[in-house]
Amino acid sequence: MAELSLEDGTLWYDTHGDGSPLVFVHGGWQNGRAWGPQVDRFESTHQPVTLDVRGHGNTGATDTDEYSINLFTDDLEELLDHLGLEAPVLCGLSLGSMVVQNYLDRHPDRAAGAILGGAVRSMPPVELPMGTKSFLSPMPALSASLSMTGPEATFRSMLTSIQATTGQQWLSVDSEVRSMAMDAVSEVDDDEYRKIFDALYQFDPPELTHVETPTLVVHGDQEAPPVKRQARAIASEVDDGAWLELADSGHLVNQDRPAAFNEAMTQFLERRVWD
């Protein structure tokens, strides 16, 4: 992996292959390795770029006290400038989909395309009454859980709550994928976990009606229903959007169904981006 110096830390990233750039932004409490199936598939024909977002993976902690999707987007912009990538296809999963949406809002025609897996617009993925979100913040309970049980147990508790509500595995239908996801969570320390969660919770999703970038939104059939609704809304809001549901897959749709996800990417790139 390579390093990019930031004002308050170091961003770790990796590049593979050569050709048209595909830039991958992972989900919350995961890391760039989550895109392994896509890197393996496209490194012979494209230039896949993965990064570990602040607080995650090799990048780990940075000196800033609070994180935000805006800050993560600033880092993405800095990485693209550093690598000289002017018209990449941006691929975001979950938290990464928020970062990509934010980038598209800032630069509605600068990316060649966007592919969003497990796309979500807010946490929680439902509209709360105006002015109530700050009063309903789960941060006190989250901080208590982190101090008592740590990130991995806190994450498992969140999964249990979602599964009890939806009746679905949600995160992943594959036990090996779930195990890899938990390994990634275990690499995140308590304070970074809190800062990442707060970035997700505080995100105010932009309207995307002005976005001209061809966009594909992909979710699994076992995804939480509110997230599915948000995913469809994203696809319908952008000027050139499409959405796809893959069977036998959950939130980590690119890992649950890697071959099908890669094929969807291939068709999208050929027909909508570089046709």
TrEMBL record:
Keywords of the record: Hydrolase
Stored SUPFAM superfamilies: alpha/beta-Hydrolases
Single Gene Ontology MF annotation: hydrolase activity
Gene3D superfamilies assigned: alpha/beta hydrolase (3.40.50.1820)
Ranges of residues in domain AB hydrolase-1: 22-264
Domain of life: Archaea
Name of the protein in question: Alpha/beta hydrolase fold protein
Organism for this UniProt entry: Natronococcus amylolyticus DSM 10524
